[in-house]
Amino acid sequence: xxxxxxxxxxxxxxxxxxxxxxxxxxxxxxxxxxxxxxxxxxxxxxxxxxxxxxxxxxxxxxxxxxxxxxxxxxxxxxxxxxxxxxxxxxxxxxxxxxxxxxxxxxxxxxxxxxxxxxxxxxxxxxxxxxxxxxxxxxxxxxxxxxxxxxxxxxxxxxxxxxxxxxxxxxxxxxxxxxxxxxxxxxxxxxxxxxxxxxxxxxxxxxxxxxxxxxxxxxxxxxxxxxxxxxx
Length: 231
Known about the structure:
By secondary structure, the chain is α/β, with parallel strands linked by helices. It has one domain: P-loop containing nucleotide triphosphate hydrolases (Rossmann fold). The protein has 12 helices and 5 strands. Strands 2-3-4-1-5 form a 5-stranded parallel β-sheet, with helices on both faces. Strand 3, helix 9 and strand 4 (181-186) form a beta-alpha-beta unit. Helix 10 (190-196) packs across helix 11 (198-205). Residues 1-13 and 35-45 have low confidence and may be disordered.
């Protein structure tokens, strides 16, 4: 895994895009090598297996990678080890928010996540567009303070449209999230994130964190197709 300095300094054929693709591919290989995966279900703690059963993989390799990454992320939160980030990138409908919701609901049941010394709840979920509007337009600074301090922060539907104030806010939040459990789901590609700000993708990749770019078709279409085959 490349640290931030190496990420910025690498010079390879194809430039930054080639570096980004190589880093993403290495992360996928790391996820797949971390633990064996069965084509039916991940074998884990009973409660963990039950919650992940909601996310059907339909024997699709990319969905298997998503499920395994979620399994690792939840297991590490439970064992208080290796605080890191999980970022799911891909078009709308591939199952990012659905899987993120499963992880988030599981985390809310963990005392080390839900209990916080200064906040009522230790976990926080934000829809990016609503969060930006609340913090920048409505001046609700307490929301950004919570995003900085939460034991687990989930930024859902992250999309950057060239608004420099929103980009600055994201960079501020990500900097404050160093060493804290963080989950991000976004319809943007790695190249699109990198084009907005070179530091954002580097932070997502830093410190053993996992970035998965999902190119699978719509999750609902796969589910309906599976039902049609089984009927």
